[in-house]
Amino acid sequence: MKALKVLSTAALIGVSALALASCNNKNTEKTIIFHHAAGQTLQKEIDNAIARFKEKFPGWDVEQASQGGYDELKSATVSNLQAGTQPDIAYCYADHVATYITAGKVLDMSKFINSTDTVEASSGSLNVGYSSAEVADFVPGYYNEGLATNYADYDKYGFTATSMLTMPFSKSTELMYVNLDAMKAAGVSEIPTTWDELFAAAEKIKEKYPVSTPIAYDSEANWAIAMAKQNGWNYTSPTSPYYTFRNETRLANWMDSLAPYYERGIITTKTTYGGYTSDLFTQGVEAGGCVFCIGSSGGASYQATDNFNWGVAAIPGSVVDGKVNKSVISQGPSLVMFDTGNSEKSTMAWMFMKELLDPSFQSSFSQSSGYNPVRLSTYDNESYKAFLDDTTNIKAVAAKVASTMSNDFFTSPAFNGSSDARIQIGSALVSVIKGEKDGASALEAAYKACGGK
């Protein structure tokens, strides 16, 4: 086993770098840059991970910086890559990384995962790599999202089938938040498990509460993508022509079917409503709110209310060949590493990433965020077990429901332009729901907006 020495003696650096380090009162060669989209509460959790890392590796520092939302983070990262000022680590989604790899700066983390090297820490030597047992401790579906085989033309950029482009960090999915009191008062005894059941329940609720909007779905893009996955409709492909939704008449017909429901006040979405539909959920049906609100498990705290008894369930599934397909999108950030030209620094950035992926940190972060941890052993953590057992905490209930759905999670193919497909399919659905276009015209317009000819 080769030992990589990480000591306090600074490497020789240029005059300009010394000046910058002096100006900022920090050694930029030993400062790991971490860009993310975390809010202030979660930044405090990250601060705790930074403190533990610095205790292990005196002389090293981590600078974390929020770039705003995920779209802003992607734009900033693309600009950084173009300027050669990329961070060492960043939050990411797969379709972001599909763009980043074209710059040739995404690191293959399999070399760290499989490493037999050690680094010197204050407590002694620490392994750089993960053991096979540690790899197996990651939730398989989350871990496998990072494989290069999930990316179109990965071999063109020097990766192999076993290359690891991202590591899972914190995951969420979509759930259905339910006003149990209003549902039962309308004569619906059980939470719907299929879309047909959901719309049948919505009719009863609308009759009981005429001012209500029974069904609210935050993400139009997620709705369209999930329906395509559940029903086997074309959406995108990892190989050319990529944007396979263009002539998907079944998807177009489904979009068309939603317009009458919107016109009658049965459904709404974030865009058509003008804000997150959790506001509709918490206000209650008597005030015009919704009964079934589909949104992120990571946003469960925004669904919290004492105005009525609530429940949390998986989103409905589609009946295909007599079976219910409950496929649901996997969300939440992964972590990507960038080559900044300093191999020692890259190794230490990886060691900081391991701090973020440690089960004890995953427990604390997941309790604060409501997102699901990515390490299986986190569920054995006493603090996290106590959190999940709190049936009065909607974040805990949502996390517990989401943890049972991992076999149904999916991600869409990632390629340079897949993020455009997501944006445009969501816009297409909005235009059809509002009656501005029919489904076929909306999909054609989305195809052209993605660069299709």
- The CATH superfamily label of the largest domain reads Periplasmic binding protein-like II
Tell how many strands the DSSP assignment holds: 17
* Main sheet makeup: 7 strands, mixed
Discrete helix count: 19
Structural class: alpha/beta
Total number of distinct structural domains: 2
Q: What does the oligomeric state look like here? A: single chain
Mean pLDDT: 93
Strand proportion: 15-25%
What does this structure look like?
With 453 residues, this protein is of the alpha/beta class. The protein folds into 2 domains: 12-168 and 333-370, 3-Layer(aba) Sandwich (D-Maltodextrin-Binding Protein, domain 2), CATH 3.40.190; 172-330 and 407-449, 3-Layer(aba) Sandwich (D-Maltodextrin-Binding Protein, domain 2), CATH 3.40.190.10. 42% of the residues lie in helices and 15% in strands. The chain has helices at residues 15-24, 40-56, 70-83, 94-100, 110-113, 132-136, 140-144, 180-185, 195-208, 220-231, 249-263, 270-273, 278-283, 343-356, 359-369, 382-388, 394-403, 418-433, 439-449, and strands spanning 3-4, 31-36, 61-66, 89-92, 118-121, 124-127, 167-168, 172-179, 215-217, 267-269, 292-296, 310-314, 318-320, 323-325, 328-331, 334-337, 409-410. Helix 18 (418-433) packs antiparallel against helix 19 (439-449). It is globular and about 70 Å long. 45% of the residues are buried. Residues 1-25 have low confidence and may be disordered.
